[in-house]
Write a structure and sequence with these properties.
alpha+beta, Peptide Deformylase, 5-stranded antiparallel sheet, 32% strand
Length: 188
């Protein structure tokens, strides 16, 4: 099932999402829905709050990026992260122009550390601890932020934020062009 994507301004995107208890929901079906929704929107990552579910779960698939320039090998980077804990962020910081399915048609540079160590449950509820760097780390950091109610625009300077205010308000009203179904908090 493909869910509409929740737009910027909805309070669910600002909450700290709750841990998932093993067996408390049909996680397999939900994960499938998350991937279906992400692919329908041509995204490379999707966090559960973006479909209105305030739980600690996100999915990524960077494999569609593999032919693009400046992206390292993404083979196998199709993953589900349940109850992730970002244990460490390290390395040099680097800038990259990020976007977000909940903030359509806006891309801005965000600075983040290049490496992460993350502990999580996979789709089979196996505990894993892995390290990622570069674009993979970037995608994980962006999606992980969603679980803590954070969005990439939060990293921008006050000036930049003021400049985007009108566009963000339009997005909250659903006045934005997307090729995917959206749910906007201020839509009349
Ligand atoms: Ni996002």
């Amino acid at each position: 099932m493909v869910y509409p994507i929740i737009m910027y301004g909805d309070p669910v995107l600002r909450k700290r999402a709750k841990e998932i208890e093993e067996g408390s929901l049909d996680i397999k079906a939900l994960i499938q829905d998350m991937f279906d929704t992400m692919y329908a929107a041509h995204g490379i990552g999707l966090a559960a709050p973006q479909i209105g579910k305030s739980i600690r779960l996100f999915v990524v698939d960077g494999t569609t990026l593999k032919d693009e320039d400046d992206v390292e090998d993404m083979t196998g980077f199709r993953k589900t992260f349940i109850n992730p804990v970002l244990i460490e962020e390290k390395g040099e910081t680097w800038e990259f122009e990020e976007g977000c399915l909940s903030i359509p048609n806006i891309r801005e540079n965000v600075t983040r550390p290049e490496k992460v160590k993350i502990r999580y449950r996979d789709e089979g509820w196996n505990q894993r601890e892995e390290e990622y760097d570069g674009m993979k780390a970037r995608i994980i950091q962006h999606e992980y932020d969603h679980l803590d109610g954070k969005m990439f625009v939060d990293y921008l300077t006050p000036l930049k934020k003021r400049m985007l205010k009108g566009k963000l308000t339009d997005i909250s009203k659903g006045e934005v062009d997307t090729e995917y179904r959206i749910s906007a908090p201020l839509k009349k």
